Amino acid sequence: MNRPLTIDEGQVVKLLRVRDSIRLAREAYVRLAKGEALNPERVWLSVPDGASVFAMPAYVLGHKTVSVKVARLNPENPGRLFPSVMATIYVYDSITGHELAQVQADSLTALRTAASSAVATDLLAGKSCETLGIIGTGRQASAHVPAMLEVRKFSRILAYSRDPAHRNAFAANIGKTYSVQAEPADTPEKVVESSEVLVLATNSQVPLFHGGLVQPGTHVNAVGAALPGAREVDSLLVSRSLLVVDSIPQAKSSYGDVLIPMKEGNIKETDFYELGDLLVHPTKASRKPGQVSLFKSGGLAVLDAVFADHLVSMVPRHAD
Q1: Nearest-5° angle of CA 64, CA 65, CA 66?
Q2: Does residue 104 sit in the same domain as residue 125?
Q3: Does residue 267 sit in the same domain as residue 281?
Q4: For a tag site, which of 67, 75, 191, 297 has the least CB within 10 Å?
Q5: How do residues 34-87 score in pLDDT, each as one tens digit?
Q6: Which residue range(s) make up the domain with 280?
Q7: How many Cα atoms within 13 Å fall on the side-chain side of residue 51?
């Protein structure tokens, strides 16, 4: 019998090319929308004054693997010299349940989240976009840069972080790595007012800016907040947007960006759509001229299942 694989962060980064990641993310959303994947709502537990722990199983019909991701989240972790999010995917044979692999999934989570934003941006953003704005300068923000550049030809990137050293270093690194002008901004408002596409990848528990500052026709990807009481965007922005989520059931149960405006009466369930459904039926949502679009994602297990199945198929197995 083959020993279970251990796929480490270095292998994940080496094997998951940006273009392939976007293709895999699109496949996951489409398969789910067509009823060809099992993606039960994630189970989560929050320790008082501690970590939130998520268990996320999923299976894609016809795959030889079934996966369960266990993610741990604490926005205060950077002060303890730990990542805000840590994750492991456990991969099993879909017939026997025998363990096939453990995948270190911190980088995978960032890559599939960025790929999801790229799929949404490709569908919802204007075809000609000059400036990409990024608020946040961590792992998620870094992963979004090549993914966004894969779907739109940005000539300029503006980046904001509360720490001047972080935003300066982030912009400098982008400028060296990609053929694009990258600049640090000293306020989030400067980023918002100047960008046609926005990526919000922070640990903020409260809205990052006033929703009225977002220019007409802008597309926003909000990927940071994933708990009921936390949000990166305010109710004004949500109410003036074509709102698209990765999962309507998950959004209603745990996304503060959606839950809070719903509780306030600013939006109702019929006001938003699922990304996969729009990929399959692109004319389903009617967008007003100049309307902002907002993609809110918190991460779906089906994405992890598709990505993990792809990785396991690429790594040689060794017999005992």
Answers
A1: 135
A2: no
A3: yes
A4: 75
A5: 999 999 988 889 999 899 999 999 999 999 999 999 999 888 888 888 888 899
A6: 116-300
A7: 15
CB atoms within 10 A of CB 23: 15
In angstroms, rounded to a whole number, what is the distance separating the alpha carbons of residues 47 and 74? Answer: 10
Same domain, 125 and 270: yes
319 within a domain of the structure (yes/no): no
Task: Decide if 50 is inside a domain.
Answer: yes
Which residues, including other chains, have CB under 8 Å from residue 118's CB and lie 6 or more apart? 22, 25, 144, 147, 148, 150, 151
Reply yes or no on whether the pLDDT at 320 is more than 50: no
pLDDT for 203: 87
- The pTM of this model reads 0.93
Residue 56 counted as domain residue: yes
pLDDT at res. 33: 97
Residue whose C-alpha is closest to residue 226's, from 246, 196, 198, 197: 246
Measured distance CA(71)–CA(103) in Å, rounded: 12
Residue 1 has pLDDT above 70, yes or no: no
pLDDT in tens, 171-182: 999 999 998 999
**Residue 239, amino acid:** S
Would the pLDDT of 319 be above 70? Answer: no
Both 241 and 306 in one domain: the answer is no
Number of domains comprising the chain: 2
* Residue at token pair 């692999």: 101
- Based on the domain organization, do 86 and 123 belong to the same domain? no
